[in-house]
Write a structure and sequence with these properties.
The chain has four helices and 17 strands. By secondary structure, the chain is mostly beta strands. It has two domains: about 170 residues, Roll (Chitinase A, domain 3); about 140 residues, Chitinase A, domain 3.
Length: about 325
């Protein structure tokens, strides 16, 4: 899975999209309410072929009350709708100065994945993407209220209160992810010597019993249930249930089962030992991993429950790939 561009990650922003229906033969597009064009987005001049970096001329400074969306090149592929993940090439500009702020490299390998979800991304970005067809080049002129607000973005060079201009090529839409399993459903595997014992209740929640022995000094991994689903790759967002126990103290320091819902982690955004437990395993599997400090939280530990010399044990149900 490609990683989403960090500049658009704004959790918790929710806004309804502007409505403007366009007749089409695509059933998704036929029921889609696209954000309408406006005089400012129509005035952005965009030249060049789809898939190559565009030449863009902006009549700056721009000033819009609501996000405006103009289709510069009309594609004929599937239509992106709320909940999809689209793979795009894009260039972002300052509406105040017309200057380029950031861009992809316009290669297939360099596309960026954007969820069409205004709880995860800048509202104006989502308004620009929503109802756009694969093969389209779309211009969004986005006001502060739908982007960085009165704070701006120092990292990108967006001053407080500035518009941004987003020019995006929709390359593809990811197929929908399979629904996550309620619990690991793989084939039970023989227990391996030296590991903690694991007993499951009817919901699949484990009870982990630590051996009366010193912990191993290297990472140890065993499959308790062998699933036959998709193989987890580096960089995937993986849906899991998990329980973590401190080998040295026997304390459960974290678990998703107690919260009543699984968690989603990117394999590149967790401690090294947890990454090792996920990558290469199949959806439907349950694994147990024993993680020494150097592949956990290191000498600093994670107070108050994990010291710098503590070994960790996780039992993980791999339920899906988001």
């Amino acid at each position: 899975m490609r990683t989403a561009a960090s500049f658009v990650l704004v959790a918790g922003l929710v806004a309804s999209l502007a409505a403007c229906s366009t007749p089409t033969t695509d059933p998704a597009a036929a029921s889609c309410d696209a954000t309408p064009a406006g005089s400012v987005s129509n005035a952005v001049k965009v030249t060049g072929d789809f898939g190559s970096k565009p030449e863009v001329t902006i009549n700056f400074p721009t000033s819009v009350e609501d996000t405006e969306r103009t289709v510069a090149i009309e594609g004929d592929g599937a239509t992106a709708v709320t909940g999809d993940v689209v793979n795009v090439n894009f260039t972002l500009y300052s509406g105040e100065t017309g200057e380029e702020l950031t861009t992809t490299d316009y290669t297939e390998e360099g596309t960026t994945a954007f969820p069409v979800d205004d709880t995860q991304f800048l509202v104006g970005i989502v308004k620009t993407l929503d109802c756009s067809a694969v093969g389209s080049r779309v211009v969004g002129v986005i006001p502060p209220a739908d982007s960085f607000g009165e704070a701006g973005s120092e990292d990108l060079g967006v001053a407080p209160g500035d518009d941004i201009v987003f020019v995006v090529d929709l390359v593809s839409i990811d197929p929908p992810a399979a629904p996550a399993l309620p619990k690991a459903d793989g084939v039970e595997q023989p227990a391996e010597d030296g590991f903690p014992t694991v007993v499951l209740d009817d919901t699949g929640r484990p009870t982990i019993t630590i051996p009366d022995a010193a912990p191993p000094t290297d990472l140890r991994l065993a499959v308790l249930k062998l699933g036959d689903g998709t193989t987890v790759q580096s960089g995937d967002d993986v849906v899991v249930h998990y329980e973590g126990v401190n080998w040295n103290t026997g304390v459960i320091f974290d678990e998703s089962w107690a919260r009543g819902e699984p968690a989603t982690f990117n394999t590149n955004a967790v401690i090294a030992g947890f990454t090792a437990a996920l990558v290469g395993q199949n959806v439907g599997s349950q694994v147990i991993v024993v993680i020494p400090p150097d592949q956990g939280y290191g000498e600093a530990g994670s107070p108050p429950d994990i010291g710098g010399t503590d070994t960790l044990v996780f039992v993980v149900d791999i339920l899906g790939i988001a």
